[in-house]
Amino acid sequence: MPSDPRFSIVTCTWNSAATLGDTLASLASQSWRDFEHVFVDGGSLDGTLDMLAAYRGNKRILPGVGGGISRAMNHGIAAARGDIVAHLHADDYYAGPEVLAQVARHFDATGAAWVVGNIQVLRDGELAPPYPMQPFSYRAYASGRTSIPHPAVFVRRAWFARVGGFDPSLRYAMDIDLWLRLAFTASPAQLDLPLAVFREHAGSVSSSNKICARQEEFRVRRRHARRAPLAFALYCLRYWKRMQALRAASDMSP
């Protein structure tokens, strides 16, 4: 019987035909071939499933998974066979052909439970330079001084069993909740390279509902406040300033 792959890349799709091609091409170009691609589809009607059927690779397709993005990501984790799991959504793509090879080497060199890299944002057809990667600590993340970009996160599958998966009740901040749980137990090994490209557009959940997203993030961080109370207090100051700015921008919009 074939051995389990090193990586399981989970891609959640729902009417994703407009952007999925870049995602698939970025995986097809990887020099590291020891991976499977798990697709979790929420009921696409736009040709997405035809694209997945035509995609050549070590793939599995989980069709008709409803109930929101957190549930879809959890289905992908449950189906994964690889030692290392990553979520690469159909809006996003890996930044180059050596990404999986670089991540594999970093896992081997550090023995880490999870590896976090950097991203670049694609906005209006232009790639923005990556933000400088700040040194990671639990307190720095809890206070909002450092970030963990989801498309550049790689987690050993066994650790999901230890800390749990994504909270299905959350719509925006499910990744922050999981990273706070995971980071409290095991700090990530940072890889200061742009590993993925995040496509920002008006239809993305994080862009179209910024005030609701910030409010949910606040509730999530408050769940974990007892673990780093001073860090949470610092986050509250940042939250207040950001909400003021968002509400002012909302009042000015036509």
UniProtKB/TrEMBL annotation:
Keywords: Glycosyltransferase, Transferase. It holds the Pfam family Glycos_transf_2. The keyword Transferase applies. Its EC number is 2.4.-.-. Residues 8-134 form the Glycosyltransferase 2-like domain. GO terms for molecular function: glycosyltransferase activity. InterPro entries: Glyco_trans_2-like (IPR001173), Glycosyltransf_2 (IPR050834), Nucleotide-diphossugar_trans (IPR029044). This is Glycosyltransferase family 2 protein.
